[in-house]
UniProtKB/TrEMBL annotation:
<dbReference type="InterPro" id="IPR042100">
    <property type="entry name" value="Bug_dom1"/>
</dbReference>
<dbReference type="InterPro" id="IPR005064">
    <property type="entry name" value="BUG"/>
</dbReference>
<protein>
    <submittedName>
        <fullName>Tripartite tricarboxylate transporter substrate binding protein TctC</fullName>
    </submittedName>
</protein>
<dbReference type="InterPro" id="IPR006311">
    <property type="entry name" value="TAT_signal"/>
</dbReference>
<feature type="region of interest" description="Disordered">
    <location>
        <begin position="1"/>
        <end position="21"/>
    </location>
</feature>
<dbReference type="Pfam" id="PF03401">
    <property type="entry name" value="TctC"/>
</dbReference>
<comment type="similarity">
    <text>Belongs to the UPF0065 (bug) family.</text>
</comment>
<feature type="compositionally biased region" description="Pro residues">
    <location>
        <begin position="1"/>
        <end position="15"/>
    </location>
</feature>
């Protein structure tokens, strides 16, 4: 999905990593920072976008930039592109582009969003993983530095083992884990999945520090670690694992959700005596410094987008569970989630 309109001016020499994103980027380049290194990153399929002040200050329904704080193809990118599709198909925004800005668990994009003060025509996708990354990396910019507009939905993790695993229930898996925590290696596709494993360890009376956790670069790599025997169990997003579960290559032991979810025939961990309910929620934030009218306009656009047939179809296709929060409810939710995740990192010794 390409950006339209004339290209912005030529990109100046990249600043060092302590600086923020320039107001304008070429269509051929966005900044990516990971581990302190700036590199070029593709946006979509051989198409490049820009975060630019050109979108600011005008009619919100004329032009909008959706920022995905990760590479193309991941969960945040998927949300941004489904929002884009719904807005374009229904004429909610005339010109809407997606810009991918990966790095440091989303905190690079968050830091840049915080520099676009007053530019209401920018929205960034975020969620549990981004909040976790601000704590994990000690980010100078937090969600408190931008305008948080809404939580859109929740996505649940599933605990899986290879089909030939001797563990047929969550209780059997946990019993083996308790016997020798370091000898039963876990994996997952990201920092959120590690938090779920930590939460399960605590619920089972296992010291998370003693657990062997193999970090994988995405859900696909985590599945391969299971299938090739590198890991014995994994926590991962249900949408990432459903094909392998249905094909019989993986066995699902538990869904990490507060209650059973319609259409998902997997018992929850809670039903099996392990009270773990951390969800991978997705959110939308805007730059700081917006007027009350601009904030209300953005909230209205989000409501319109979520009401479209295209968005509803995406929710069903990706097995998302709608949970829309805004206003004071959102503020309270984010504060509670920050405390909860910070406590899990303490348990992990980080």
């Amino acid at each position: 999905m390409s950006a339209s309109g004339p290209p912005p001016p030529h990109l100046p020499e990249p600043p060092d990593t302590s600086h923020t994103l320039p107001a304008s980027l070429t269509r051929r380049t966005v900044l990516r920072a990971l581990g302190g290194t700036l590199v070029a990153a593709a946006v979509g399929t051989a198409v490049y976008g820009s975060v630019s002040s050109a979108a600011a200050g005008g009619d919100l329904h004329a032009s909008l930039t959706l920022i995905a704080p990760a590479a193309a193809g991941g969960g945040w990118d998927t949300v941004a592109r489904e929002l884009q599709q719904a807005q374009k198909a229904n004429g909610l925004v005339n010109n809407v582009q997606v810009v991918n800005m990966p790095g440091a668990g989303g905190t690079i994009a968050l830091g840049n969003l915080s520099t676009l003060a007053g530019q209401a025509n920018n929205l960034m996708v975020g969620g549990t993983g981004l909040l976790a990354a601000t704590l994990q990396y000690g980010s100078a910019t937090t969600l408190g530095d931008v305008t948080n507009l809404a939580v859109l939905f929740e996505e649940y993790d599933v605990i899986v083992v290879p089909a030939d695993s001797p563990h047929r229930t969550l209780e059997e898996l946990v019993d083996a884990w308790k016997d020798d925590p370091a000898a039963l290696p876990w994996t997952g596709g990201g920092s959120f999945d590690e938090l779920v494993v930590t939460d399960l360890a605590i619920a089972a009376g296992i010291d998370p520090v003693e657990t062997t956790y193999i970090s994988s670069d995405g859900g696909g790599e985590a599945i391969q670690a299971l299938l090739n025997g590198t890991a014995a169990a994994a926590a991962g997003g249900y949408p990432d694992n459903i094909d392998q579960i249905e094909s019989g290559r993986l066995r699902a032991l538990a869904l990490v959700a507060k209650e059973p979810v319609g259409g998902i025939d997997i018992p929850t961990a809670r039903e099996q005596g392990f009270d773990i309910t951390l969800s991978n929620w997705r959110s939308l934030s805007a730059p700081p410094g917006l007027t009350a009218e601009e904030t209300a306009d953005l909230e209205g656009l989000i409501d319109e987008t979520l009401a479209t047939d295209e968005w509803r179809a995406a929710v069903e296709r990706y097995h998302w569970s709608p949970r829309v929060l805004s206003g004071e409810a959102l503020e309270g939710f984010l504060a509670a989630e920050e405390s909860r995740i910070a406590a899990l990192y303490e348990e992990m010794g980080q």
